[in-house]
Amino acid sequence: MKxxxxxxxxxxxxxxxxxxxxxxxPLGLPAEMPSDWQAVALRKLDELRHQYRSLQLYxxxxxxxxxxxxxxxxxxxxxxxxxxxxxxxxxxxxxxRRYFTPSGKLGGRLAAAEDLTDKVLDEWYAYxxxxxxxxxxxxxxxxxxxxxxxxxxxxxxxxxxGVATKYVTEVVKKAHEIGxxxxxxxxxxxxSCQFLEEEMKEETGADIKxxxxxxxAEVLLVPPSADLxxxxxxxxxYAKLFHAAGVSWTTSTYASEAGNFGxxxxxxxxxxxxxxxxxAAKQLKVKRLVIGECGHAWRAAQAFMDTLNGPLDFLDAxxxxxxxxxxARLIRDGRVKLNKTANDGVVVTYHDPCNVAxxxxxxxxxxxxxxxxxxxxxxxxxxTIRERTFCCGAGGGMLAxxxxxxxxxxxxPRVEAFKTTGANFLATPCAICKxxxxxxxxxxxxxxxxxxxxxxxxxxxxx
Amino acid sequence: MATIELAGKQFDVDEDGFIQDTAQxxxxxxxxxxxxxxxxELTEEHWKVIRFLRSYYLEFGVAPMIRKLCKETGFQLKYxxxxxxxxxxxxxxxxxxxxxxxxxV
Amino acid sequence: xxxxxxxxxxxxxxxxxxxxxxxxxxxVPLKIPLTPGPTTAAGVVGRMAGEVFLFRSLFDxxxxxxVAAWIFHVSLVLLAVGHVAGLVVPDFAxxxxxxxPAQFSHLxxxxxxxxxxxxxxxxxxxxxxxxxxxxxxxxxTLSDYLALALLFFAIQTGNHMRFMGDLDIVQAREFVAxxxxxxxxxxxxxxPFVAHMLLVCVLVAYIPFSKLMHLGxxxxxxxxxxxxxxxQQRHVNPWDHEASKA
Lengths: 463, 105, 246
Hints:
The complex is a heterotrimer.
Chain A: H1 21-24, H2 37-51, H3 53-60, H4 73-78, H5 85-100, H6 102-107, H7 118-127, H8 136-140, H9 147-160, H10 166-177, H11 186-204, E1 219-222, H12 232-245, E2 249-250, H13 267-283, E3 288-291, H14 295-309, E4 321-322, H15 323-332, E5 347-350, H16 354-358, H17 364-373, E6 376-378, H18 404-419, E7 425-427, H19 431-443, E8 449-451, H20 453-460
Helix pairs in contact in A: 2-3, 2-9, 3-9, 5-9, 12-20, 13-14, 15-17, 17-20, 18-19
Chain B: E1 2-6, E2 9-13, H1 27-36, H2 44-60, H3 66-73, H4 77-83, H5 88-95
Chain C: H1 2-25, H2 41-54, H3 56-61, H4 63-88, H5 90-96, H6 101-132, H7 134-139, H8 142-164, H9 169-180, H10 191-206, H11 214-217, H12 222-225, H13 241-245
């Protein structure tokens, strides 16, 4: 996409609803902004720069070359200069310079340093929640500066003074209290699994199970809870795969969510949400922990879980596993029989979810599966896939209705790339992408289906 | 907390206009919301969706799977979007007095 | 003059030392390599080499900028090497290259001239780019222009000496030798020489307080220098002891 002309303030009014005390307090965050909030926030910034080399370094070494500027889908879509990754990071850097560097302390505005004021905080709240932490900018930065690291720090600082979004805190609260983002209690979980079993029986005549809390199973599958709400074909795909390959598996009502919105809030909650998965795996005495089709879940699991809540040596290696990796292995080993003609008429392309590709390194397996189950697989242009994939536009805690305008604009680069393929099905292993892209397709006038890799695999598996 | 007046009564609602206390719900609330959502008239088909959503919610404490909603009402998802233009998770849940489903939806 | 040079070098060394210390004192709590990435230490060395010597990421990001940036940085390094060869160890350099002193000085004239020009031309481009490209202008700060100006004038005064030929190279060598043996002698009587030295002093002392410290920082960037081995090797967060005990 051609970079747009700068349109300052274009998306300044795109703001998530603020979390109120009913959501802040249960998460241990200040119910109201403290009167000395600047001091609290600056202490937090100081603490974080001592805890994260990435933060300290990325505050120091940016040369503002602008290589990242036209790589962010939110800048490409909105033209708002504060959505250029370099400018987004400067929102935090100018405060860092003001309070923590000699040039900023002495030079003030001349040194591009600025006091932490209500106005600055307001900018932070708008633009650090218009970053989906997708890391595309980092791929193109000559120093690997990852704006997601800056965004995460800024959100953690804001949270420390009681400034957070309703969407993210509400979801984290449900994950802690009920076990999943949608808030599906155990009885509903069981009812839903049973309903899908009946559906599969009707379709195939076979007794394909979706086990719940089954101790001693080989695999604990943790899906995003959206797979038991909107993306039920994905859930059916998992079930058919395990059934056909004869692998014993279970879901858990304690860890019924792969997604980790703690990642979008702060370290404490990232760790706490993540711990449920480890505890459930231990309690159910499974050998393998397999993560379902959820983008940032894969980052939290493959990159962070062992550090946060490990060691995971009670699991078979490699640990944990991605469902695409697991399925691709079963297909390679001939453990499932496939019939491509079940997907006749499907022209599929693969959208790499940002966290799966750029933070989880899962690039080949989903493609391998799609080639095995669909006869017409096409790629989007090379600079928009694999580690250079565009975010769907609503990752990182942005999938809230009130951000619809920036979401749709941010989705544009992805949708434009899709249009070049002539595909009628976009497959992607991420519940956020699956929720965002159908809306974006409709908004941008594209008629195509969005679904999971497992959806198509499930259809092709011969039972 | 915001409040709105529906059918002559005050209701606490969240930022997206969903009523906070589902026990306060009655048929008039659904009718008032329908007007907001641009639904001209609530037909028996609308009520079928609304009644199922409510009964499921009251039993399980959460909105049902969309697939189950389709199966139980006999309507295809496309048709539900025709009935409720903003969809089952937004418009239909709002009319039925359920809290807004949030998460990756 | 000599005092100023010693001072600027001291500021540079202490400043960079302090910077590196602030980077190293902060640990890397989580695995954040960009993936797909190398899984082994050797692979990481390869990735870093690609970034440091070839600016690989920038090559993908902005080809024109890459050309300018690469030529500039290579020229700058070669100019630095040339200064050492020509001013500090000319006899050694000449004999290593198997050249007579006359041939060596001729080679120095050509290479110094070529890379002197190859260094300033990209700087002019970078300046124009910063000024004319809307996106870059928007994020540019005074310090960005200052860094470009310092580099430009520092190199340009060197070019001036090279092409106007008003420097006594023997005097310059004696001056440098004096500095290195801590027995300073007066600098050559040359306006451009003094200007060149002053600008370089300011530049060198400015590095640790500016974005120019990217020259050291790149080596510490976790997204680039971490191996992608979180599932083979447990990574421990040093400030979260619960994690390391559990």
